[in-house]
Design brief:
By secondary structure, this protein is an alpha/beta fold. The protein has helices spanning about 55-70, 85-100, 125-135, 155-170, 185-190, 195-200, 205-220, 270-275, 290-295, 320-330, 340-345; strands at about 25, 105, 115-120, 140-145, 175, 220-225, 230, 245, 255, 300, 305-310, 315-320, 335, 360-365, 365-370, 390-395, 405-410. Helix 2 packs across helix 4 and helix 2 runs parallel beside helix 7. This is Serine/threonine-protein phosphatase.
Length: about 450
């Protein structure tokens, strides 16, 4: 299933050290040259005969995706990656992912290890390829934790997701792929991924999309790194021992009716997280699916306490006191979450912007809460000429305790290959707000 662990990689680049853990190193990128008219390698790609993915196979996959994005129309992707190869890759990765717990524990770090944490990447393939080169490829001493939102918004969500699945198959104990709120049926139907897949694989598109959704179900929800750092896409979650909210009946576009008799909200435990049911694409708001909804959709605030996340219509808002309680209770020092890009943060008074690709939201006696966003110049498609021009960032955690984050900011790879959007970015709601959550209800 996977090859032997490489101790180093061709791009074994260590990011430059910073003067303090809260000072980011910025990497300025240069424009990528136009690709050749003919690929410098053999396509279509074939699945390894022994199903053993190698570093060479992944590098060919990277080169193939890079070349095709610049030289072929999206509908020609099957000529690069046939459906049979897609099926083999997704099946192999899904078997690995579905066996992982809701919260993966990364404990086999040593004095030579580095852990790279990556936030939202949203279909921005060329920036992901740069990030992997800049941080150094995954290998025996370099772990990667991706914090979700691989698809939607950007034009290469499928290539993004498949590339990361390939790394997971190659190094399953060094690459960890967590789930974001966009790894769902609802979001992918609104923000472009479904249409992207149909455009790229034509009459096989529905098959490819269904296989991706099935793989999304297997993505873990959170990680704990070296017993010190908790990472999840949205963040914290409530205890499930509360009275569920009710749904209105008899209307197609029914809305949530908050139960006035709901008990006071309280933080959930890592034990409750481990027992949550994650194998539902669009988590309802009750029972064993309540916690996944919180983990994927919640946001921090500067106001104390836990409260419903009315802006999004799902999940929670939690204050610095909750961050302190969670860190102290589970003997952690750091929470790294993602979920908010520059468009979301400009609407969030009291919290920092996403210009550098990260913010330190809470500083409490037991540690810190960080929001990490790894998609620079986001979103790719924007209705106005004025852009956010944000940088992306990733975090490097080092020994001895792996809880003193080093921030590496980077600019977008330009120019992006010319391509059309797969969603109506001019009219679609921003930042996943005011969602029609009724359409997320699935049978359980």
């Amino acid at each position: 299933m996977s090859g032997s662990l490489p101790s180093g990689c061709p791009s074994d680049h260590e990011p430059a050290a910073t003067n303090s853990p809260e000072e980011a190193t910025t990497t300025t990128t240069t424009s990528i040259p136009e690709g050749p008219s003919q690929p410098p390698f053999q396509i279509p790609l074939s699945w390894p005969s022994n199903s053993s993915v190698t570093l060479d196979w992944i590098q060919n996959l990277i080169s193939s995706f890079d070349w095709s994005s610049k030289n072929l129309p999206p509908s020609e992707l099957p000529s690069v990656l046939p459906v049979s190869v897609f099926d083999a890759l997704v099946l192999t990765a899904s078997k690995i992912l579905h066996k992982e717990p809701n919260c993966v524990r990364i404990d086999d770090c040593n004095e030579n290890s580095r852990v790279v944490v990556v936030g939202d990447v949203h279909g921005q393939l060329h920036d992901v390829m740069f990030l992997l080169q800049d941080a150094g490829f995954p290998c025996e001493d370099r772990f990667f934790v991706f914090n979700g939102d691989y698809v939607d918004r950007g034009a290469w969500g499928l290539e993004n997701f498949l590339l990361l699945l390939a790394w997971k198959v190659f190094l399953p104990q060094r690459v960890f792929l967590l789930r974001g709120n966009h790894e769902s049926k609802y979001c992918t139907s609104v923000y472009g991924f479904e249409k992207e897949v149909l455009a790229k694989y034509g009459d096989k598109g529905k098959h490819v999309y269904r296989k991706c959704l099935g793989c999304f179900e297997g993505l873990p929800l959170a990680s704990v790194i070296a017993g010190r750092v908790y990472t999840a896409h949205g963040g914290l979650f409530r205890s499930e021992s509360i009275t569920p909210s009710k749904r209105s009946k008899g209307k197609k576009n029914r809305r949530i009716i908050l139960n006035s008799e709901t008990k006071p909200l309280c933080l959930g435990s890592l034990e409750e997280l481990s027992k949550a049911r994650r194998s539902v694409l669009d988590p309802p708001w009750e029972g064993q699916n309540l916690i996944p909804g919180d983990v994927l959709w919640s946001d921090p605030t500067m106001k104390s306490g836990l409260s419903p996340n009315t802006e999004r219509g799902i999940g929670l808002l939690w204050g610095p006191d909750c961050t302190e309680d969670f860190l102290k209770k589970f003997e952690l020092k750091l929470i790294i979450r993602s979920h908010e890009g520059p468009d979301a943060r400009e609407k969030r008074p009291g919290l920092g912007g996403m210009d550098e690709g990260y913010t330190i939201d809470h500083v409490v006696p037991s540690g810190k809460l960080i929001t990490l966003f790894s998609a620079p110049d986001y979103p790719q498609f924007q209705a106005t000429e004025e852009r956010y021009k944000n940088k992306g960032a990733y975090i490097v955690l080092k020994p001895p305790c792996f809880d003193d984050p080093e921030f590496l900011s980077f600019e977008a790879i330009t120019p992006r290959p010319a391509v059309n959007a797969y969603y109506d970015y001019k009219d679609v709601i921003d930042s996943d707000e005011e969602l029609d959550l009724a359409s997320m209800v699935t049978s359980t």
